[in-house]
Amino acid sequence: MTSYVSNSKQVEVQGQVYDSLSAAARAFGLNSDKVLERIRCGWSIYEALEIVERKLPSLNYQSRIEEFVAQEKIKPGSVGKRISLRRRRIREWLNLPGHSPTRHSNALIVTDSEGRTFSSLKEASAEKGMHRSTSKSGGLKLVKVKKYTFESEMAISVESILLLCAHPNLGLKDNLFYPNGHFILLDNQVRLHLFFRNTGDNEYIAFASIDGVTLFSVKCSANGYGVSSSSTLFRDTALLKPYEKSALHILMRGCAKQNLEEFLSDFVEYKQP
């Protein structure tokens, strides 16, 4: 069962025929929307209906590509197009320029005393009418960021996730505080739902959710950012409810990680006191 399966078609599960995927979901006592979303994300129908445990994908890039091609019944050449589309959407979300092989992976975000952001020191100097050598005395602040942190496919890190919540360019978004939030596509077609709440001048809180479960929040200000210590990520996993554990494992799958303890430990250094 793949992401293009129609909900209106009959499905057979363990020898029982159901009129639709939604009917099968109800028969197994599951939320039909969640089951359909799992199917769209590439889960098998037995995994989506929780008949068998969802297995995390291999970290081997080539084998994962081959599995994806076989699952989706597409040409191998189409995989690259899907990857490029995801990268382009993330760049658009962060207001980053299109990929150029001549650009260095480490780049600068330039802000002035009024909080305006420029894509380069050259652009900022021209706008302010000053020479680049006098940038600091002219009130320009230079911050090194990895603009292309998502270039390494299948290796989205905790740092990458936090950049989605706290990148300096997010201040340029007119709709950042859109009440319905924003969806960002991670690895394995995992959709990260981000909500932003304005808490003052140049300060906001970003809430990251999977399947309606808020897993962590990031407090962002001019002085930096950190993950709230009260986040679900930092709770004892033995005390989490089943749906919270499920959301946590989906996030881990979105970062192509397999060891939960190691994955969670990466967040600790960003934990606010």
Largest sheet: 5 strands, antiparallel
Tell me roughly what share of residues is in helical segments.
Answer: 25-40%
Mean pLDDT: 77
- The Rg value, from CA coordinates, equals 21 Å
Strand content: 15-25%
Briefly say what this structure is.
This protein is of the alpha+beta class and 273 residues long.
Describe this structure in words.
- With about 270 residues, the protein is α+β, with helices and mostly antiparallel strands.
- Helices cover about 35% and strands about 20% of the residues.
- The protein contains nine helices and ten strands.
- It has a five-stranded antiparallel beta sheet with strand order 6-7-8-9-10. The chain has a three-stranded antiparallel beta sheet with strand order 4-3-5.
- The model is unreliable at about 1-5, about 100-105 and about 145-155 (pLDDT under 50).
List the helices and strands and how they pair.
Elements: E1 11-13, E2 16-18, H1 21-27, H2 32-40, H3 45-48, H4 61-72, H5 76-93, E3 106-111, E4 117-118, H6 121-128, E5 141-146, H7 158-166, E6 182-185, E7 191-200, E8 203-210, E9 213-221, E10 224-227, H8 242-254, H9 260-268
Antiparallel strand pairs: 1-2, 3-4, 3-5, 6-7, 7-8, 8-9, 9-10
Helix pairs in contact: 1-2
Please give a handful of descriptors for the protein shown.
three-stranded antiparallel β-sheet, 33% helix, alpha+beta, 273 residues, 10 strands
